[in-house]
What does this fold into?
Amino acid sequence: MTSVVAQQDGGGAGGGTGGTYTFSSHPRALQGRKKYRQEDQCTAGYYGNIMYDRRVVRGNTYAQHTLPVTGQPDPIEIQRQQEIQRRAVARRRAKAQLRTTTPLPLDGRIHIEVQTELYLEELSDRIEEVDVDTQTDAFLDKPPTPLFIPGKSGKDVATQIEEGELFDFDIEVKPMLEVLVGKTIEQALLEVLEEEELANLRALQREFEEIRNAELAEVQRMEERERRYREEKKHRMIQQQDVLNKEKETADKIAARAFAQNYLADLIPIVFSTLRDNGYFYDPVERDVENVFLPWLMGEVKKTIEKKILGRTMLDILLRDVENNRSQMFRDSHPPAKI
It folds into this structure.
């Protein structure tokens, strides 16, 4: 290896001398280094500043992930994470399926971003800026500064350019016309393609809406049929339950009737005989004679006897009166004899 360095030496005011410094060394082979460091090389003294030591933790340690006590992860936690990821993927897939996508372009065509609003607007990343002015009090205007015109120097030189030497309109305007016409035709073709694509999109949207409306109608019809099935099933279940209840009630009534018949088979004659003995069962003619005729007859007999007793009493009173009168008359007519 050789290196040459130029040197300049200054020797007083009279001048200087120049020379070169040459260094050469014999070539030597590089020492082989191992791919991995040895254990004795990994010492703390290798780093001069702990701020550059990767083993030193800097910052907040509360948000760092701590390793579990056991080396193996928790299977329940792993299963829960997998379930969360599976639900997120299913949710994204469902959103992607529900999202209305643009149909694929036809052969030889590509999609471009087009504004479909009624009024087009310019899209730009530039932030809108608004200028705001204010008016101060009126001051006297400063007189205009006269235009600085430097003094003329040098000589005027003129040249004559003939017509067609620098610019030929017919030749120079041809590229411009080609560009304008090409751009106009290209823009017209793009607009026609956009109109066709928009018409196709509208047709696809109408077809999609028709299919969706048909599917919604079918879903509503199936829901209505399912509702009718549920109501009919519920009605049949209620009807069957009523039939079972009636059958049970009829069986209970039959059993109660049979039990009552068996129980009352010997009770009825006893009850009838007891009621007959107590007078609850009677002959209507006999009861009429006892309740109506006999009381009337007794009353009439009593009245007759009372009349007879009254006649006898009156007769006894009359007889007593007559006898008293006769006795008084007899005493009056035959006075007693004086002794």
